[in-house]
Amino acid sequence: MGHFKQLCNQHGHFTRLVACSLVVEYAPYQEVHASEYENLGSLGAIQAPNWEVFYGKDREDVILRALSEIYAKLNHLEQMMNEQQINYLPLESQSTLEVLGHGILGTNQANFEPSQTYYMRFKLPHMPYKRIPIIARAFDSHLLHITRMHPRDVKDFDGFIAKRELESLKKAD
Length: 173
Prior knowledge:
Oligomer: single chain
CATH architecture of the largest domain: Beta Barrel
CATH superfamily of the largest domain: predicted glycosyltransferase like domains
Number of domains: 2
Order of helices and strands: HEHHEEEEEH
Strand content: 25-35%
CATH class of the largest domain: Mainly Beta
């Protein structure tokens, strides 16, 4: 991972990197990818209501908590069913992401043409019902910088990285 860190620093990307193993589909970016990127970003835009706001002094708070958990589970089931019904654009290549950083993706294979922009899709382990679409620009044959990502996906992506960082710190102790 030190090699990836050195390459990132040489190109002005100063971020912590975490190891991972995520399958990623990709292709050089074309305008046809823009509509899929936007469509995938709009899926699941309706968020679960925050029932916890209504928790009060009464016994009803237990019911509200249960409703909130049921709603979240139903929402996940609906997202899984939607995932199976989507006709994704075929992307010509597939690889494995080996490292992630905030705004950075890296593979061990030299798959990318520096300065080329790519459309990519991948899933995070804790969200198997959702493919995250991104647009990234290669700054090395192994590394890319994310140039476009939906705000909700950034939150999920950064949360995954933070979780991996904490796991690695616990292992180091």
